[in-house]
Design goal:
Elements lengths: L1 H18 L11 E7 L2 E2 L6 E4 L4 E7 L4 E7 L3 H7 L25 E4 L5 E7 L2 E2 L3 E5 L2 E8 L1 E4 L6 E3 L7 E11 L6 E13 L10 E2 L9
Parallel strand pairs: 3-14, 6-11
Antiparallel strand pairs: 1-2, 1-4, 2-15, 4-10, 5-7, 5-13, 7-8, 9-10, 11-12, 13-14
Length: about 220
């Protein structure tokens, strides 16, 4: 009987081990940012990307909690402060409460503000602020298309991106999580990006064609 039990355990143990394997490592921590336009993922070099002044998509890959604070502005103050490792509470673009937005990004609008961030999150299929969400083992891909601009520091008019007067946009992205007693948020990761709008002829041509199984893999 004892011999039979040992043989039985040996037979089922490999299956148990296989089922307990952890989720694959996505190859990054917290989040990763990409920018897509015209079916291509554009090159980001030294926190700068060149785009045409027309619709594009911000792609956020999340490992773990799928949420982020993002400040977008036509002025570089928050961008520069972030690059200098200034504490998030002292960065101008995070001094006010986050701006309320509709779910699912139906109007494809990027809200600009010098002092307030946006809060983009994915809770489930019925609650998120993205155009599209793709689930992968170990991470989630959240795509947000940008076709319109609303500048809260100016006339607040919603205009097509092509009519945006400025040729630069500055983005600051900060991942924060509450501490154990929910008394304050702790910064986990930050990223910053300058988008420079240029005519097609002056764009860098070393871009990568989209392939969901390759472009977004770990």
């Amino acid at each position: 009987m004892k011999k039979f039990c040992l043989i039985f355990l040996a037979a089922i143990l490999p299956g148990c081990v296989t089922r307990s394997v952890q989720t694959p490592d996505p190859g990054f921590q917290h989040f990763r940012l990409s920018v897509e336009q015209d079916g291509f993922v554009r090159d980001i070099s030294d926190h700068v990307v060149y785009l045409e002044k027309k619709p594009f998509t911000l792609i956020l890959q999340f490992a773990g909690n799928s949420n982020i604070f993002l400040n977008a502005s036509c002025t570089p103050e928050s961008f520069k402060a972030t690059a200098l490792n200034t504490p998030v509470e002292s960065i101008e673009g995070f001094r006010e409460s986050e701006i309320a937005e509709e779910l699912f990004n139906r109007d494809e609008t990027l809200i600009l503000s010098r002092r307030a961030p946006l809060y983009w999150h994915y809770a489930n299929e019925n609650e998120h602020r993205f155009s599209e969400v793709i689930k992968r083992p170990g991470y989630v891909i959240c795509r947000r298309r940008i076709s319109w601009i609303r500048n809260m520091d100016a006339d607040r008019e919603r205009i097509p991106l092509s009519r945006q007067k400025e040729d630069d946009l500055y983005l600051v992205l900060v991942k924060m999580e509450w501490n154990t007693d929910y008394s304050h948020r702790i910064e986990k990761k930050r990223e910053y990006l300058r988008i420079i709008f240029r005519p097609d002829g002056s764009l860098k041509k070393t871009n990568t064609a989209i392939s969901p199984d390759k472009t977004f893999s770990s």
